[in-house]
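Worked Example 4.2. Read the sequence first, then its structure tokens.
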Amino acid sequence: MKKSLMSLSAVFTLSFAALSFASEPTPKSKRPDSLCVLPSVPASVAKKSPNTRYPLGGIKAPAVSCHDNKGKHAAGYHLKLYVGKGTDWPDAVARLDYLHKPEELTAACWNACIEQKKSCSSGFAKANADRQKLCESQLQACKGVNDVKKNPADINSISKKYCKTAAPPFPQVSPAQKEPPDNDGHEDPPDDGGYF
């Protein structure tokens, strides 16, 4: 009986793993470890691929948060893109430090969107033209919702509200780094929590 349940569970898991991008579109919101806004799936994408949701394949963008270096914070660099050695994005090549301005928050979030697209294209969409298009659509949606010119109320509010001091409460340690594996023999689906 246990083997039957395990087989059924494996089939169920594999069925949904193949459609890891399927579900209802998530509403735009911030995730608790980033100042960037999560985009909604555009209507044009939802019409062509009705089961699409972001982040595609569970691949979140790197966090943008308050700077953790007091010296850089004192010099005016209140925002930081958390990529590079010691992060979930060790190979990312991007500007890390940003001034405390709405335009700089936009730039930091755009760089996070670009890093997310790189991972989406090389992982989720590898050798799949339709998925490559979805990665590009996600990039454009991510950049659009984090653009101070297109979304001034949200970006200005976030810029004013956060990062007045260094040593942020986030980004938090990724779940992969702080939770030991459950060793049940099954791969858990990515927990996107509706955030990127």
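Now turn to a second chain, presented in exactly the same format:
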Amino acid sequence: MTVDPGGGGPSSAYRQRGGTGEVLVQVAGEVARPGVYRVPAGARVNEAVQRAGGLTRRADQAGVNLVARVQDGQQVIVPRRGAAGAAVASAGSGSDGAGAGGGGGGSSGGPVSLSSATVAQLDGLDGIGPTLAQRIVDYRQTHGGFRSVDQLRDVSGIGDKRFEALRKAVTP
């Protein structure tokens, strides 16, 4: 486990630092120094990525929303170009980091994973344009991923009719 300089040891890596307004974020995938980093509460994903040494040359920058705000316990996975999209998950969501490797689905005909699909993959679904695809990714990053397909109803622009059309085309 890596904790940024000035942090405690691994035992402090699982709790928010009392009274300092800092949160812990795990940054993995295509970054120079994957690990757990302290960032100010309300910081953007970009700050956590920079603390991890920045993106590698193989990173798919479009696969991660660098301007989303981080939450304590989030995991940010920066995908490799050509892989499925980034995943941001809360510590308790049961994510095993699979978002960086595959399962994003897309035009192959299988269901698309809401937890790892890129904007381009979501845009390929019937009834989803680039704006709505970006809202889905933003929701995923803000709320720590999708634990249920039903959470798609909470995304602005997805009503009952569109949800029913998408239900079988996506997985959490």
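Notes for the reader: The chain has one domain: 10-171. The mean pLDDT is 75.
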